[in-house]
Structure formats: C-alpha cells, structure tokens
Amino acid sequence: MTRPTAVRHRFRPRAATWIAAGALLAAAGAAALAGVLAPYPPRAVVGTPAAPPSAAHRLGTNDLGQDLLSLWLHGARVSLAVGFTAAFLSTTASGLVGILTVVGGKYRAVLLAVTDVLLAIPHLPVMVLLVALLGPGLLHLVAALTLLGWPAYARVVRTLVATTMEQDYVEAARAVGAPGARIVRTCIVPVLLPVLWTKFLLTVRWAILMEATLALLGLGDPRQVSWGLILHTAFTYPLLFTGPAWSWWAAPPALALAGITLALSVIGRDFELWMNPAAQAAGRQEPGPRVVNS
C-alpha cells in the first residue's frame, strides 16, 4: 500500500512575501559581506564621538567615535548567525526527540519527563541564569537557546508521529517486514518536514530577539558586536534622548530587528499555507462573522 499524498492547490505568494524574502536575503548578504562593505574596522575609533551621519560616517558614530555603519554590518553577521545556528540545532532536536518519544522504547519516559520539565520553566529567567553561570560567549548562548528552544515543538512532532504510525500504509510497511529506520525515513520524515521548516523559521525569529534581549540586558558577549550590543551601548549613553543621537544610533539596529522578525513571520505564514492544503482552502473562503465560544 502506498502512502497517500495530499493534493495541494496552486499557491501564489503574496507581494509581502517577496518583499520579506528580499529583505531577509539583503540582510543575509550584508552580514556575509560585512568585512567588504564595512568602511572601517568595527572597533576602530575613527571619528568624533556621537557625531551625526555624514559622508565619512553614513550612520554617524557612537560615544567612542566608532563608525555605526561598520558596527551595524558586523552586528548583522553575529545576530543572524546566532539565530540560524540555534534554530537549526533546536529544530533538529525537536524532530529527534519527537520521534524517539514514540519509537524510542525505554527512552520514551525519560524524554517525555525532560520535555515536560523544560516546558514548565520560564525561558527568559532561565536564559539569564544560564548565561550568567556559563559566562558570556556565543557558544554558550547558542547552547542555551538550543536547550530551551526544542521542547514545545517536540510535543507537536510526537503527536504527528503517533498519528502517522497508525496509518494503513505504515501498518502495511510493518507487515511486509520493513525495518523501523526505513519506516521513519520514508513514512515519518516527509510528514514532519513542513512542521519542522515552520518551526525553524519561527525559532530563527525567537533566537535573534532573545540574543538581542540578553545583550540589551548586558549579558551579551562584549567581544562580539551584535545588534543587541549596539542597543545596549546606546541605552547606557546618558545623553541618548536629549538630542537626535537616538535616530542614528539606536534606531537602525532596532528597525533591523523589527524588520527581520516581521519578514520571518510573513515567510513562515505563507510557507505554512503552501504546505498545508487545509489552510489554503480556509484562506480562499470569504471572510465572515466569527463566533467565539465562551
């Protein structure tokens, strides 16, 4: 018996999706080419402190006289690297743990208990505690983000795996003696990929914002320039809001964080619509009054 395939309606991305994808690619390109595009070394003192934008300094300078455009470009590299690395690791962990909690035999109870514990604890206080204990560093930050990023979707993956294992085509594969690894690879993984891709996009957004939050609180790695660290130094400057300095110092990294998270949200939503035929059908229906059950 062959595995049934869902019939997808033709999905056309919205203009907002193309704009979001372009913005994300532009940010990734700027981060990748930061060493070429940055006019100065990020830590070099090259101008008058807190100088407004000029031909020599397109985004002005900070209180130390460092070029803010160079800091912004190198900060994009660190912020995006942390977000994508933590998202990849936590998404992989979500898939593996979700599968093992169904087919993992004696490990299922332990994995379910660990998942429940990590789901019950608040993320931000635990993240602050972990970074404070481990010390500043991108590896420590990525490890903490990965640890707290996988449990919620592991539950979703577990539900999908358990439902899929009850399907007729999986039972047929078992009946003809297909090994468990092959069943997982050919029957389970294709079902999980849309959910894991959506989880990946959402976790990139969450990890970038969490890194910026920790850096803004002073828990970032001072050796690595990130958008959050730029905001931290801006908000520790006592004269930030007494003049226009906020507009060229704090606004660019804040707008970049907002733009990246919005772009990831738009792309994630349309990706989910593309992979989910039921959501596509619901999206084509005429909007009507919503009834909220109390």
Please describe what this structure looks like.
This protein has 294 residues and is mainly α. The chain has a single domain (65-276), classed as MetI-like fold (Orthogonal Bundle), CATH 1.10.3720.10. It has helices spanning 15-32, 34-37, 68-103, 108-120, 123-134, 138-149, 151-165, 168-175, 180-216, 227-235, 245-249, 251-275, 277-284. Helix 1 packs across helix 12 and helix 5 (123-134) packs antiparallel against helix 6 (138-149).
Estimated radius of gyration: 23 Å
Number of domains: 1
Q: Can you give the helix content as a percent range?
A: 55-70%
How many helical stretches? 13
- The helix-and-strand class reads mainly alpha
Question: Which blocks of ≥5 consecutive residues have pLDDT under 50?
Answer: 4-8, 278-294
What is the CATH class designation?
Mainly Alpha
* N-C termini distance: 44 Å
Briefly note the CATH topology name.
MetI-like fold
Strand content: under 5%
Q: Provide the residue-averaged pLDDT.
A: 85
Shape category: elongated
H/E series, N to C? Answer: HHHHHHHHHHHHH
Main sheet specs: none
The number of E-state strands comes to 0
CATH superfamily membership, which one? MetI-like
CATH architecture identity:
Orthogonal Bundle
